[in-house]
């Protein structure tokens, strides 16, 4: 009875099972390269680490924290090793209240050469800092200040600097910032 159950398919060696299935060679599925290799000589940005978990609500949506700065604001660093530097906000991370500033909090990254014989490079990378370590800065008065909110006569809510009274969210400023962003793209 045992002889009747034997077939040529059951006499497969371990080597043939590892390479294929019943004589058919199986190839491992090729994943498309979702992350393009960083171009050397360009500005590399620090990414959120895999182990950084986002705080979520009951419906699994991330908790978004309100920040006192926006993209394009001029700020002064008030804490950390870059204390005293004046820069502009380039990116916001609302899930952990961190911001990216232009040419502030630079980290050194060692990049391998991609091709054989190509030498590696040492690249300066901007890393995010916590938004509590910066204050809005007035270029005209050359002073850092806390931010306040007020409603204008036309009903629009704007942010302003408490020390100088300078309005930050004027329509002209908003247009300037977004025109610069469009030109870069």
Structure, described:
Helices cover 13% and strands 28% of the residues. By secondary structure, the chain is an alpha+beta fold. A 6-stranded antiparallel beta sheet has the order 8-5-4-3-9-10, with no helix packed on it. It is globular, with a radius of gyration of 28 Å. It comes from Ceratodon purpureus (Fire moss). GO terms for molecular function: RNA binding; structural constituent of ribosome.
Features:
two-stranded antiparallel ribbon, Ribosomal_uL24_C, six-stranded antiparallel beta sheet, 185 residues, ribosomal protein, KOW domain-containing protein, SH3 type barrels, alpha+beta, RNA binding
Present the secondary structure layout.
Layout: H1 2-5, H2 14-19, E1 20-21, E2 24-25, E3 74-77, E4 86-93, E5 98-101, E6 106-111, E7 121-126, E8 129-130, E9 134-138, E10 143-145, E11 147-151, E12 157-161, H3 171-184
Antiparallel strand pairs: 1-2, 3-4, 3-9, 4-5, 5-8, 6-7, 9-10, 11-12
GO molecular function: RNA binding; structural constituent of ribosome
GO cellular component, one term: ribonucleoprotein complex
Protein name: KOW domain-containing protein
């Amino acid at each position: 009875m045992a002889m009747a159950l034997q077939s040529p398919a059951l006499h497969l060696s371990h080597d043939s099972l590892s390479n294929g299935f019943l004589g058919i060679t199986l190839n491992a599925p090729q994943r498309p390269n979702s992350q393009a290799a960083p171009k050397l000589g360009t500005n590399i940005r620090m990414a959120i680490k895999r182990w950084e978990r986002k705080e979520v609500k009951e419906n699994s949506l991330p908790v978004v924290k309100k920040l006192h700065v926006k993209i394009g604001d001029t700020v002064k660093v008030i804490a950390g090793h870059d204390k005293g530097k004046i820069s502009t906000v380039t990116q916001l991370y609302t899930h952990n209240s961190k911001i990216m500033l232009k040419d502030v909090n630079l980290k050194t990254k060692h990049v391998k050469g991609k091709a054989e014989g190509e030498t590696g490079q040492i690249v300066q990378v901007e890393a995010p800092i916590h938004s509590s370590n910066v204050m809005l800065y007035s270029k005209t008065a050359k002073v850092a200040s806390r931010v306040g909110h007020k409603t204008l006569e036309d009903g629009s809510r704007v942010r302003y600097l408490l020390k100088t009274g300078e309005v930050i969210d004027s329509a002209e400023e908003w247009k300037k910032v977004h025109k610069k962003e469009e030109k870069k793209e």
